[in-house]
Design brief:
The structure holds 2 protein chains of 2 kinds.
Chain A lengths: L1 H28 L4 H8 L6 H10 L6 H13 L13 H36 L4 H15 L2 H15 L11 H32 L1 H8 L4 H13 L1 H15 L3 H6 L5 H10 L3 H29 L2 H9 L1
Helix pairs in contact in A: 1-14, 2-3, 5-6, 5-8, 5-11, 6-8, 7-8, 8-10, 8-11, 11-14
Chain B lengths: L1 H27 L3 H11 L3 E6 L16 H7 L4 E3 L5 E3 L2 E6 L5 E6 L13 H12 L2 H4 L3 H5 E8 L2 E6 L6 H5 L32 E7 L3 E6 L12 E6 L3 H10 L4 E4 L5 H9 L3 E16 L9 H9 L3 H9 L4 E2 L22 H10 L12 E2 L2 E2 L1 E7 L3 H17 L2 E7 L1 H9 L5 E5 L8 H8 L5 H4 L6 H13 L3 H18 L2 E14 L2 E3 L15 E2 L3
Parallel strand pairs in B: 1-10, 16-17, 16-18
Antiparallel strand pairs in B: 2-3, 4-5, 5-7, 6-7, 8-9, 9-10, 11-19, 12-18, 12-19, 13-19, 14-15, 20-21
Classes of the chains: A mainly alpha, B alpha+beta.
Chain lengths: 314, 543
């Protein structure tokens, strides 16, 4: 098991390597000169002499390969340089914004699981019943409503009209409700349908029939036996979504003035704040890998056959 | 199992009820609760506003990401810019200018203290000037930075600036929000170099920053040591709300008392709030002009007949009214008349399609039989118009102009660009038609004429092929160094007349600031300086 985790962690290295290579290449292909971007962001008029001076300072006059290796070396030491805009260490700025994003991401995942698991199970067990029809409706809306619009709608009803919840900002649990709902709807739509399909499949399986023949109560057949296996595709999907949520939910953070990572990144793009962009891509790559790893571990725990299969293959 | 379904049904039912309730009852009781929360706030004489971006570091000597309005709350200038460009004493009670225009002596206001209680005197003024001048490159955009030769603390309350050459807008340049404002001793880092940051935000202004959470909010309280008339309100809370629609929702809910700024809410939202009796809305005097540059360095646009034809060939009034619904005002001259020296009667270039067509014919651009675009020597009369693709007003105006000029037989190709790329092309003189804005008060008219004469900003390039460009540059140099008020007036008149006749810069509309506020605010005034905060002239109901 530990060997497996170790092996997977090692896989981070080449992926991060590729991710940094791609960002590095993109920044160099883009028509914007980092030296000029720096001066513009700092509101300094870019005279040719100043540009030359900054290029030297950033090492832009050195061979590309050397620059790239240097970038890699710094990333390995977790040194992402200073933001062009604020002149503060990028890592510090990012660290400050991560908790807000993580809070929202965890809440959304948790809430959507809490809602979609019962809904999905009920929809599968009572096919064509009213819960099934309801989940279909939710999925239809969840998949088609743009998130920013849903956010505005929720703000309009719950904050402006009913005055139940705050419009924006971060603070107590009240502030979490609307952004969480906004982010969750699309997840609930997805998870409920996923679970319904996989649950229906499992209920047809031989082991379920066998369990029934053994005289186990239906409730325990569904919840203890079938659900455990039926959750698999859901967990895979959750892992992917978690990565996406943790790298910042740009639109929702914007609509609800949530002081997170995504909003910061968007501003960095507009200002061509290259050190921030680099740090973001690096972190995003790491977060996706770690989330996927966690998903695999959970799946292994829930279905030991996967590990066994992996062993026979290796 | 049934049990579970029943429980789920109750839960789902409850959620549905809640949603249904919100949808129905919302309309019947229009914000009774919102009103009460607004009242609560009123009792402490505080107001809450929103701003799209974090206020940034409260350093008086640096730029982005610091926000001008916030810097202006804490830090004050020697001279302040009043209505119609009248210069008023601020931290300097009075000033003398030597006959040759090269020495400025400021008599500082006595008994002024910083918010931490320390003295404001000539020594700290000098220290601030020197900290700014250590980075002349950074501040070179401001004309006065290039001509300051010496700074001197003559005595406790006298400060002297010596210039290397006369430059008349010294006082206007010193009134801008950054960089020449004053940080107290306690704010300076050990090496005195404020470019790297400040230790504490200590200023002489009417406000001090009492609480701050990056990207979320900032709370300003009255400075107890303030020398001038204390503001009528006790506290200003600034909420950072990046999204314009969310800002409107927060205002409608009563969380915000004031929405203020340029382009901070959409046109639709402004009109909706304007029509609502519960709120008051106000438009400022023009703070800047939206113009269209016709780049004369393009051979087709080098002909004044073509430029005039284009200027006359679209219905400006209908376009501005139709697109901005009165939020902007059609502009007849490049600079509005509320700056110093710009109140000159310029002959407007009137809308006249027939004349436009005649001019184009005269210039040799003939519409061939059966074609839609004029031609001359086998070349089509065709231009590229660059606009900022995130600006809905620019886009709509670009489309209108394209359609109207299309009727004249002029083809306009629209290119929507990101702002940074757009500015890059402007500076590189790589454009035909370009939306351009002047700087506004207190920078104009001197900053405007300065870019007319200095290459590298795109304006001088736009004008490069007009016949009297050299003479224009000479006049500009003269006006900036002139010490004679009457001569300066004359020169400005002549410069502005030339620019008006040449039609290389086509004024489109005057941009205005908007303010929408709750009834609890009883008095609101726009600051004369475009970048200043509006809180000094603001009054609220007495609770």
């Amino acid at each position: 098991m530990i060997r497996y985790i170790g092996k997977r962690m090692l896989a981070i290295v080449p992926i991060v390597f590729i991710a940094t290579l791609v960002t590095f290449a993109l920044i160099h292909i883009s028509p914007v000169d980092p030296a000029e971007a720096y001066l513009t962001a700092a509101h300094i008029y870019p005279t040719p002499e100043l540009l030359e001076q900054k290029r030297q300072e950033f090492g832009l006059d050195r061979p590309i390969l050397e620059q790239y290796l240097d970038t890699l070396g710094r990333i390995a030491r977790f040194d992402f340089g200073r933001s062009y805009l604020t002149n503060r260490p990028v890592w510090e700025e990012v660290k400050m914004r991560l908790p807000a994003t993580a809070e929202l991401a965890l809440c959304s995942i948790l809430f959507s699981v809490l809602v979609s698991v019962p809904l999905g199970v009920l929809a599968a067990v009572y096919r064509k019943g009213w819960v099934d029809r309801l989940t279909r409706l939710i999925s239809y809306f969840g998949a088609s409503i743009p998130q920013f619009w849903l956010g505005y709608l929720l703000i309009f009803f719950f904050s402006v009209r009913l005055d139940l919840l705050p419009v924006e900002g971060r603070g107590g649990w009240e502030n979490l409700v609307l952004p969480t709902l906004t982010l969750s709807l699309v997840l609930i739509a997805l998870y409920t349908r996923l679970l319904r399909v996989s649950m229906s499949e499992q209920l047809e399986e031989i082991y379920v029939q066998y369990a029934r023949t053994r005289g186990l109560p239906e409730r325990s057949v569904v919840l203890k036996h079938a659900l455990k296996v039926a959750m698999m595709p859901l967990i895979t999907s959750m892992g992917m979504n978690m990565g996406r949520l943790l790298t910042g939910t740009i639109i929702v953070e914007q609509v609800f003035s949530w002081p997170g990572f995504g909003r910061y990144f968007v501003e960095a793009i507009f200002n061509r704040d290259i050190p921030v962009i680099q740090c973001y891509v690096f972190l995003a790559a790491c977060l996706f890998i770690v989330c996927n790893l966690i998903v695999d571990l959970i799946q292994m725990y829930m279905d030991p056959r996967i590990l066994a299969k992996g062993r026979t293959e290796s | 199992m049934f049990n579970i379904q029943r429980r789920a049904a109750v839960l789902i039912g409850a959620i549905l009820m809640l949603v249904a309730l919100s949808a129905c009852s919302g309309k019947e009781q229009p914000k009774a609760a919102a009103g009460s929360s607004a009242q609560e706030q009123a009792s402490a004489k505080t107001i809450t506003i929103s701003w799209p971006r974090d206020i940034g570091t409260m350093n008086p000597h640096t730029y982005n990401p610091s926000q001008l309005f916030a810097q202006s709350m804490l830090y004050e200038p020697l001279v302040s810019y009043g209505k119609n460009g009248k210069l008023e004493p601020a931290l300097a009670e009075s000033w003398d200018i030597s006959a040759d225009g090269k020495t400025y002596t400021f008599h500082l206001r006595p008994n002024v203290k910083f918010s931490d209680g320390s003295e404001f005197n000539a020594a700290i003024v000098k220290k601030n000037f020197d900290a700014v001048l250590k980075h002349r490159d950074t501040h070179a955009w401001l004309g006065v930075v290039g001509v300051i030769d010496q700074t001197q603390a003559v005595d406790e309350h006298t400060f002297r600036l010596t210039l290397s050459e006369p430059y008349y807008p010294v006082l206007q340049d010193l009134s801008v929000v950054r960089p020449f404002r004053f940080l107290g001793e306690a704010g300076f880092p050990d090496d005195g170099d404020t470019a790297e940051g400040v230790k504490q935000a200590v200023g002489t202004g009417p406000w001090l920053l009492s609480e701050y959470k990056q990207d979320e909010y900032a709370i300003f309280k009255r400075n107890p040591n303030y020398w001038g008339k204390a503001p009528a309100i006790d506290q200003v809370t600034v909420k950072i709300i990046p999204d314009a629609e969310t800002r409107v929702a927060a205002f409608e809910k009563g969380d915000l008392d004031l929405i203020y700024g340029e382009g901070v809410i959409s046109l639709d939202a402004f009109q909706e709030l304007q029509a609502n009796d519960q709120y008051t809305s106000q438009l400022s005097d023009p703070v800047g002009t939206r113009s269209l540059l016709l780049n004369s360095s393009n051979p087709k646009l080098a002909d004044i007949r073509v430029r005039t034809a284009l200027h006359q060939g679209f219905n400006k009034e209908a376009m501005v009214e139709g697109i901005t619904s009165g939020l902007e005002q059609p502009a007849d001259s490049i600079l509005s008349t509320n700056y110093p020296y710009t109140d000159v009667q310029l002959k407007p270039i009137e809308y006249d399609v027939a004349h436009s067509q005649a001019l184009l014919d005269e210039a040799g651009w003939i519409l061939p039989e059966g074609k839609a675009v004029r031609e001359k020597d086998g070349q089509k009369l065709e231009f590229e118009l660059i606009y900022d693709k995130t600006d809905p007003i620019q886009k709509a105006m670009a489309e209108t102009i394209q359609a109207e000029w299309g009727g004249l037989g002029v083809q306009v190709n629209l290119t929507g660009l990101e702002l940074t790329v757009q500015i890059k092309r402007l500076k590189a003189n790589d454009f035909d038609l370009y939306f351009w804005y002047n700087y506004g008060a207190p920078y104009d008219p001197h900053s405007f004429v300065n870019v007319v004469a200095s290459p590298g900003f795109g304006i001088s390039e736009t004008l490069s092929a007009i016949p009297m460009k050299k003479q224009l540059d000479k006049q500009i140099h003269e006006v900036l160094s002139s010490t004679d008020e009457t001569k300066r007036k004359e020169l400005y008149r002549s410069i502005l007349e030339t620019l008006q006749e040449q039609s290389a810069i086509v004024p489109l509309s005057y941009v205005k600031k908007t303010a929408v506020y709750q009834k609890k605010i009883t008095q609101f005034e726009f600051p004369a300086n475009r970048d200043e905060n509006p809180f000094s002239g603001l009054k609220t109901q007495t609770p």
